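Page 47, continued from p. 46.
Same chain as before, 272 aa.
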Amino acid sequence: MSAEAEQALTPTSYIQHHLSFYAEPLNAGGGFWTLHVDTLVTAVLLGVVSLGLIRWIVSGATAGVPTRRQAFIEVLVDFIDEQVAGIFHGDRKAFVAPTAFTVFIWVLLMNAMDFLPVDIIAHWVIEPLGLHEFRLVPTADVNTTFALALSVWVLMIFFSIKVKGLGGWIHELFCAPFGSNPLVWIPNFLFNLIEYVSKPLSHSLRLFGNMYAGEIIFLLLWLWAATGVAGTVFGSVLGLGWAIFHILIVTLQAYIFMMLTVVYISMAHESH
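Result:
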C-alpha cells in the first residue's frame, strides 16, 4: 500500500484489507470453485517445512544420549501416542497415530502463522512481491478447515465400510440406534444423516471460528497504533498479552482438531 492509501484506510477497510484474499491471478476459478491460492501456498509450504524439520531431526537421532531436539520430538510422539491409545483400541501405529501426529503438527503450524505481525510481513515480504492482499493464516480460511474436516470425514466412511463391510455399514445406517424394525428405518437413517452432516461442520467451524476471531482481535489491537504514541504503547502491551494467551488457543485448537480426528476414526471401527 502507498502512504496515501494507508492514510485513507479506516478501521473497517484496514481489517478488510488484511482479511481479503488476493484477486486474480492468485485466485483461480470462480464462485464455489474459487481456489484461494494464497491459502494453498502457505499451507503446502508449512507442510513441507514441518516434514523437512521432522525428517532432519529424526535422521540425526541416536541411540545414546538424545539431543534436545530429538528429546522434544520423542516426548511429542509419546504424548500423541498416549492420547490415541486412550481412544482407539486397534492397531493405532499402522495409521491412526501417524495421522494424528501429522494433523497436530500441520494444524499447529498453520495456526501459528497468526503470530506474525501482518503489517510488517505485508511491507517487507508481500508488497515487494507485487501483492497487495495475502492471507497468511490458512486455518482462518473456512475452505482450509472444511477441506481438512472433509478429509477426516472420508476416512471415517472408508474405515467404517472397511471394518463392517458395505452391507454392514448400510445396515447400521438404517438399523441404528433404534433397532431393525422396518418402521424405524427412516428415523434411523435421518438420525445418522444428521450425525454424518454435523461432524464435518462442527469439526471445521470450531477451528475456523477460533482462528478467525483471534486474527480480528490482533488487527483491532494493532489499530491502536494509529492513534499516536500512547495508542502504540497501549496496543503493544495488549497485543503482547493477547499473543501470550493466543499461544494456548493455537495449541489447544490443534489438539482438539487432532483428538476429534482420532475420535471419528475410532467411532468408524465400532459397531452399534
